[in-house]
Amino acid sequence: MGEQESTYTSNHRTKALALSIIPGLGQVYNRQWIKGIVFFILTASFFIAFSDLLQYGFWGLFTLGIDPKFDHSITLLVEGILAVIVTVLGFGIYALNLRDAFKVGKQRDANETPNSVRQQYQNLVGGGFPYLMMTPGFLLLIFVVIFPILFVILLSFTNYDLYHSPPANLVDWIGFQNFIDIFRIPIWRETFFSVLAWTVIWTFGATTLQIGLGIFLAVLMNQKEIKFQKLIRTIFILPWAVPAFVSILVFAGMFNETFGTINNDILSIFGLGNIPWLTNPTYTKIALIMIQTWLGFPFIFAMVTGVLQSIPSELYEAAEVDGATIMQKFRSITLPLVLYATAPILITQYTFNFNNFNVIFLFNGGGPAVAGQNAGGTDILISWIYSLTVSSAQYGKAAAITMILSLIVIVVALWQFKKTKSFQEEDMM
Amino acid sequence: MKGKTLQLTLSYIVIIIVSAIILYPILWVIGSSFNPGNSLSGSSIFPADATLKHYKDLFDLENSNYLIWYWNTLKVCIITMVLSVIMVCLTAYSFSRFRFVGRKNGLMTFLILQMIPNFAALIAIYALANLTGLLDTHLALILVYTGGAIPMNTYLMKGYLDTIPKELDESARMDGAGNFRIFWQIVMPLAKPMIAVVSLFTFIIPFTDFILARVLLRTEEKFTLAVGLYELIADQFGNEFTKFAAGSVMIAIPIAIMFLSLQKYFVSGLTAGGTKG
C-alpha cells in the first residue's frame, strides 16, 4: 500500500478529507455536486432541527434541572438520552461524509473516474439495501430496548426515590452512592445477600430438578414396550401447553391455607392438614420449587425425547453384548449424548429461572414478609426490583440492582456462547 | 425376562404417579369452575350440583370484562406477531445475506440484548410511556413486545436463512431479479418453517407476559388476560375463586389445543435457538 501511495502524483484524498470537515465541501471538491449538496443540506437540517434538543438535552443531562418549579428531572434525563442518541447518529452521518470524500479522492488520485450520479444511485440502492431493510427494526430496538437500558444505567447513579421525585423535588447525580449503600447500609446489605442467596438456590434447585425429571421421564418413555405412548406423551406435555400464568394462579389456590386442596384433601389423608404454605418462607420456597418443576420439565422431556430417538440402537446392542447393565448404559451412552446435544439449551433454562418473575410473583407476591429486610421471603432479584419500583418507589436503588443482575446474566451468557461452536464459526459473525 | 417385567411394572407405576400429579391440578380447576357458590370452602372436587353459572357470568358483558380482556389479548397478540415477523424477516435477511459495515457489531449487540429480559428496564419503559402519552395504551405494549422479540427471533431466523444456499439468490440475480424480489419470492417462501416458529413465539409473548402489561396498563377495560385474571383473584383471594377457575379453563383449553397441535414447531424452534446461539 505504501509504495502504491507514493506513486500518486496528486493528493486529492487528503485535500478532500480536510475540506469535508464542513460536510459536502469535500464532495464538491471531488466535483460531485449533487452528493455534496445532499450532505450539506443533511448536516444543516440536522443542526436546525436538533439544535434545541441538543443544547437543552445536554444541559439537562448534566444538571438534571436546577429549579423544581420549572424543571422535571426525569423528563430532562429522557431528553438528555435522546440528545445522546441523536448525537451518535449525527456523528455516524459525519463519519460517512469523511469516508466518502476520502474514498472518492483516492479514486481520483488513482486516475479513476468517480462514479456518475446514476452509478451512485445504483450503488446506494445496492449497498444501502441492507441498511434500508434494517431501519424499521433497528429504530424500534433503539427506542424500546436500547433507550431503556441507557435510562436504567443512568438512573442507577441518581438519588431518584420517593423523597427525590419530581415534580415537587429534583433528582441529583450521586455517583456510585447507590451501589455503596447496597453494600454498606445493614438493611440493604442483608436483604441483598439473602435475596441473592435464595435466587441462586432457586435457580439451581428448580432448574436442576426440572431437567432431571425431564431426562428421567424421556428415558423411561423411550422403552419400546410401553403401551399408549402417544397418550402418555401428550399428558406429559400438558403443563407446558397450559399458559404458565394460569397454572401458577391455580397452584396459588391449591396451596391456599383455608380452602386449598393440598391441605384439605390430600395432606389431611396423612394427618397433615395445617402446613403454612403461604405464610412460612421455607414452605413457600418448597412449594415454589415443586411448582416450577411441574411447569418446566415438559420442555426438557420433549427435547430429550427428540435426542434419544436419534441415538443409533447399535450403540446399546453393542453395550448389551458386553454385558452392560441399565445404569451403565444410561451413564456411559445416554447421558453424555443427551447432555452434549442439549447443553446450550439447558443453560438457557438456568438463566430463564434466574429471571423467572411470573412464578415468584403470581404464587405469593414474593412473600411472606420477613422481619429485618425490605424484600419478601421468596423474592428473587427480579421480583425484588419490581417491588422496589412499583411499591416502594426506590427507583435509584432498583436501577442499581438491575445493573448488578444484568451483569450476572451477561457474564453467564457470554461464557455460554463462547463455548458453543457456532460462535466461533467464521460465517456466523 | 423376569427383570424386564419388573422394570416395566415400575415404569408404569412412575407413569401413573406423574400423570396423576399433572392431571390433578387441571381436574381440580375444572371441577372448581362448575362449583356453585363463589368460594370453595367445604366443596368437593366434583360437585354434585354442577353449574355453568360462572361461565355465564364471564360472558355477561355488563358485569364482566372477561370477554374484553380476551379480545384485547388476541388483538395485542396478532399485531405483535405480524409486526415482529415483518421486522425479524427483514433484519435477519440483511444479516444473513449482506456483508456491510456494522454487521459484526450489530450481531454482537443482538446476542447480548437477547439475554437481558426487557422487563429489567421496567422503570425506563414506564417513564418513556408516561412521557410520550402512551401509558395505558395497547400500542405501547405492542411496541415493547415487538422490540423485545426482535433480537432473539432475528438470531433464530438468521440461523435458518444461513442454511438456504446462496446459489439460489445468485442465479436469480443473474436472471435480473432485484434485491427485494429475491427476498420476497425466493428466500421467504423457503423460510416458511422458521416463519411459522417465529410467528408462534411472538404470538405467545403477550399471552404469557404479566409484568409489562401490569405496569403499562391502568384501566380495567384495557387489561390483557394475564393481568385481568390476576386482578380477579388478587383483590379478595378466594371469594371469587370459582369464577376465576372458569376464566382459567377458557384460556387453558384453546391455548393447550393450539399448542399440542403445533408442538413440533415449538420444540424445533427452541432447539434451533439454543444450538445456533
TrEMBL record, chain A:
The keyword Nucleotidyltransferase does not apply. Keywords: Cell membrane, Membrane, Sugar transport, Transmembrane, Transmembrane helix, Transport. GO terms for molecular function: ABC-type maltose transporter activity. Signal peptide: none annotated. Gene3D superfamilies: MetI-like. GO terms for biological process: maltodextrin transmembrane transport. The chain crosses the membrane at residues 37-62, 74-96, 138-157, 195-219, 231-255, 286-308, 333-352, 398-417. The keyword Translocase does not apply. Pfam families: BPD_transp_1. It comes from Halobacillus salinus. PANTHER family: GALACTOOLIGOSACCHARIDES TRANSPORT SYSTEM PERMEASE PROTEIN GANP, MALTOSE/MALTODEXTRIN TRANSPORT SYSTEM PERMEASE PROTEIN MALF. GO terms for cellular component: maltose transport complex. It comes from the Bacteria. This is ABC transporter permease subunit.
TrEMBL record, chain B:
The chain crosses the membrane at residues 12-31, 68-95, 107-128, 140-161, 182-207, 244-262. GO terms for molecular function: ABC-type maltose transporter activity. The keyword Iron does not apply. Residues 70-262 form the ABC transmembrane type-1 domain. The lineage of its organism: Bacteria, Bacillati, Bacillota, Bacilli, Bacillales. GO terms for biological process: maltodextrin transmembrane transport. Gene3D superfamilies: MetI-like. Keywords: Cell membrane, Membrane, Sugar transport, Transmembrane, Transmembrane helix, Transport. It is a multi-pass membrane protein. This is Sugar ABC transporter permease. The keyword Cell membrane applies.
